[in-house]
Amino acid sequence: MSDTNTSAHTQARRPAISFEFFPPKTEEMEQNLWGVINRLAPLSPDFVSVTYGAGGSTRERTHSTIKRILEETSLTPAAHLTCDDATRADIDDVVDRYHEVGVRHIVALRGDPSGGIGTTYRAHPNGYQNSADLVASIKRRHPDMEVTVSAYPEKHPESTTLDADIDVLKAKVDAGADRAITQFFFDNDLYFRYLDRVRAAGITIPVVPGILPVQNFKLAKNFATRAGATVPDWLACKFEGLGEDAETRKLVAATVAAGQVQKLAKHGVENFHFYTMNRADLVFAISHILGI
């Protein structure tokens, strides 16, 4: 096979990737984020998403980051949007503002309980009651907007059963969702078993695996606990004794995450969403290993 044909074959099999960032809280964090964005931009992701926290100042930082991505890069931004602690009118205004500046992709989420993880979620009395309602509204107001939603291979922490959780996903799809991105997981079998059940429920949209490269094991374990995600014993063993050894931790993290995505790709997965934690090194290395 000629070099030209080899290149064409490799290009044809190039996975589709996307990256998630969170808006910076300080000037130093902003400088770091833009260093990360500039480092990852040449990988040509399908889109980059920016998270959306509770509170006005956090939400304004999301708007500012999205606007700058549109103005200063060739990247396609997807804006996170939640329906907690806001009226329908306020949320509709946010969606309209995004549409006006050129955003055509929303990641629509319910949001966390106002009392924090573990407390009961209560929708705003004048707000959208759940993410399916939010999806339907976005599609109704702006049919040209793409809408991505969340999915949970180990079920959402508040769901009673996995079947009930899949029913929630189906409601979001019926409302117009175009794609789902999963909560991060470390055991690929969880994803494949979940995908089988999702397809059996008649859900046909792409369900993209969310990948979390473990920059800091203790932090990742805390994230997993709050999200209801399992941390396998074998993963804990990989990082045991490396608390003060940052360089070795980075090598182990790259090896673990690269192994995970390679195995997913081997079984036909063609799309990956990376939770970057606003760091570029591991994500860049893993993307390179994927052939990007």
Supply the key terms:
single chain, 292 residues, 9-stranded parallel sheet
- Unreliable stretches (pLDDT < 50, length at least 5) are 1-12
The number of E-state strands comes to 9
Main β-sheet: number of strands, strand sense, barrel status? 9 strands, parallel
Structural class, from secondary structure content?
Answer: alpha/beta
Strand content: 5-15%
**Average pLDDT rating:** 88
Radius of gyration: 19 Å
Outline: globular
| End-to-end C-alpha gap | 21 Å
Strand sequence of the main sheet, in spatial order? 7-6-5-4-3-2-1-9-8
- Helix-strand sequence: HEHEHEHEHEHEHEEHHHEH
Helical fraction: 40-55%
Number of helices: 11
Give an overview in words:
The chain is of the alpha/beta class and about 290 residues long. The protein has eleven helices and nine strands.
Entry summary:
This protein is α/β, with parallel strands linked by helices and 292 residues long. It contains eleven helices and nine strands.
